[in-house]
Amino acid sequence: MYSKVDERDMSQEMIWYNEAIAGKCLAALKRNGIDGFYVSNRDEALLRLIEMIPPGKSVGFGDSVTMLQVGIVQELEKRGTNELIHPWRKNGKDYRYPIQEAIKICKKAMLTDIYLTGTNAITLDGKLFNIDALGNRVAPMIFGPDKVIVVTGVNKIVRDIEEATRRVKGFGAGVNSRRHTVKHPGAAVLKEYPPCSITGVCVDCKPPLRVCISTVIIECESRGLPKRLEIVLVGETMGI
Question: pTM higher than 0.85 for the full model?
Answer without folding.
Answer: yes
